[in-house]
Design brief:
Layout lengths: L4 E2 L3 E4 L4 E7 L7 E4 L5 E4 L10 E6 L3 E6 L8 E7 L5 E10 L6 E4 L4 E2 L3 E11 L4 E6 L2 E3 L2 E8 L2 E11 L8 E8 L2 E9 L2 E2 L2
Parallel strand pairs: 2-9, 11-19
Antiparallel strand pairs: 1-3, 3-7, 4-5, 4-8, 6-7, 8-9, 10-12, 12-16, 13-14, 13-17, 15-16, 17-18
Length: 200
């Protein structure tokens, strides 16, 4: 007799909802329950002993216990346990991973204006994300290579700073430099500066 109990890992953005599904095939009237990472019972059949009302029952049948968790925070991350009181008892594990998008990127330029032929430096910072964001640079249509430093700020949260240096020509005057943030919890996050070049 193999394992009749199955569940899935869940990845969720902070503040959104996660759904945990404990599925049973060929259930013989055994009780299903869901435990949190501290092994406290969230649902025992369709009853919720846990006082956290962010957990709500979505579906309960002999083949499935499905529970939603709203307004997910970083502290909800961890290994949830589906249990089936069969003989012998069975367990399946659902890992909840919480993603935190970075704040709006901050772009700073060392020089307000650059003389043509000189080098300039720009810095871009993406604050407070999980996992760490990656930063790309574009000068007009051209991709630039930046140098990134990653700092773990507190509990699994990261701040990333990227620095880019390049020499300017008079053709760079008015050209936009974009700092583009890549992160699984964020879309279309970028900051932009226009170059001002003084011609000799």
């Amino acid at each position: 007799e193999g394992q009749n109990l199955a569940t899935d890992n869940v990845t969720v953005i902070e503040g959104e909802s996660a759904t945990i599904s404990c599925r049973v095939k060929n259930n013989d009237d055994s009780v299903i329950q869901l435990l949190n990472p501290n092994r406290q019972t969230i649902y025992f059949r369709d009853l919720r002993p846990l006082k956290d009302s962010r957990f709500q029952l979505v579906n309960f049948s002999e083949n499935e216990l499905r529970v939603s968790l709203s307004n997910v925070s970083l502290s909800d991350e961890g290994r949830y346990v589906c249990q089936l009181y069969s003989d012998p008892p069975q367990e399946a594990y659902a890992e909840i991973t919480v993603l935190v998008p970075p704040g709006s990127p901050i772009i700073e330029s060392r020089d307000d204006m650059v003389n043509e032929g000189n080098e300039t430096e720009l810095t871009c910072t993406a604050i407070g994300s999980k996992p760490a964001a990656s930063i790309r640079w574009m000068k007009g249509e051209e991709e630039l290579t930046g140098e990134a430093t990653v700092e773990e700020t507190y509990d699994r949260m990261f701040t990333v700073t990227s620095r880019v240096r390049f020499s300017v020509t008079k053709d760079d005057d008015g050209v936009p430099v974009d700092c583009i943030i890549d992160h699984p919890a964020a879309k279309d996050l970028l900051a932009q500066r226009h170059l001002e070049v003084l011609c000799e």
